[in-house]
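Quick one, T. Sequence first:
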Amino acid sequence: MKQNRITNLLGIKYPIIQGGMVWCSGWRLAAAVSNAGGLGLIGAGSMHPEVLQEHIRKCKQATEKPFGVNVPLMYPQIEEIMKIIVDEKVGIVFTSAGNPKSWTPFLKSHGIKVVHVVSSSKFARKCEEAGVDAIVAEGFEAGGHNGREETTTFCLIPQVRRATSLPLLAAGGIATGSGMAAAMALGAEGVQIGTRFALTKESSAHDCFKQLCLSLNEGDTKLLLKKVSPTRLVHNSFSEQVEALENRGASAEELKTLLGKGRAKKGIFEGDLENGEIEIGQIASLFREMQTVDEVVDEIINEYNNVISSGILECF
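Structure tokens:
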């Protein structure tokens, strides 16, 4: 695989970034992905500041390769999180769920590379204005929290590519080498993969969560909680309650009351498959086996190289 703007920017071998997923993306997963040649991300969204600091330090001990931290910009203790990132000399930050202008200048003033996640070409242009180094364009197929536009990844990528000249990563429904090749044919220069890494042995998610997601079929997830924050959920007792409320026109406040606190932790980290919030991408139904990170990365790269060398993308 040739080096490109993404690999050069982030100092990695392969343009594969592991999504910074809540309750899945601890130091073990991030270090494993970085050691395999991609970029591992620690997911700060489910960590108290002192926990994040511990994960950063453990990740430094587990890998000499670049790694980063994913920070949802609506995080309630954002100032503390950003201070820890600077103090611990983290070199790469992926931001999401907020305005990139709010923290990009601060991070870049400390020599940190900034990548922001968007769900539309409109927000991609705002990212360029904010001075980020690269963009992740994430489509409707992704797990967890989604954009309100509900644009699919392969519709989104060429539109974002047309809107900005910044280095571009594709995310949402991408988990294979052929998927990566297709995304790059549309203008992406790399991919961010969440679901497949969430289901690896190194992921900090509960084994019950992983096994459930590895048994899913097409249509077993649905985008719900649209009045609060659109979230792709696996069908279970909790999602049925959410859907029932939404079908009768419940307010955002009613949905927030049902959601309460700790639903994602209950489902993903503690393994409560009925009452927890089980977030995963549509692509989960393609996989049935729990693999190591090394196995996943090797498989993706080998498949990508086979697609490229076969000339499939040039046959038209």
